[in-house]
Amino acid sequence: MSSREQILNKLRAARRPFEDAAPQPAQYLAVTIQDDLSPSALLDRFCVELTNLKGEPIVVDGEDAAREKVLEL
């Protein structure tokens, strides 16, 4: 038996955590409300949340511009 198989067997045999946890719900409620789900609205929301976390959003148009920006940074 390989070491990989031994590890997997130990994991399979181990007691599962949180056995008394409630079952997974069929549907999840949104954590935040976002009425406008358009790409531009989602980008705006992301930028706001990233800024709130002290991040600096850099928005570019297209994959080529993204590659150029990454190389620039």
Explain what you see.
The protein is flat, with a radius of gyration of 22 Å. It has 73 residues and is an all-alpha fold. Helices cover 49% and strands 0% of the residues. The longest helix has 14 residues, at 39-52. The mean pLDDT is 89. The chain is built from 3 helices and no strands.
* End-to-end CA span: 48 Å
Structural class: mainly alpha
> How large is the share of residues in beta strands?
under 5%
Quick one: overall form?
Answer: flat
Low-confidence stretches: none
Topology:
Blueprint: H1 3-13, H2 39-52, H3 62-72
Give a quick rundown of the structure.
This protein has 73 residues and is mainly α.
What labels would you give this structure?
73 residues
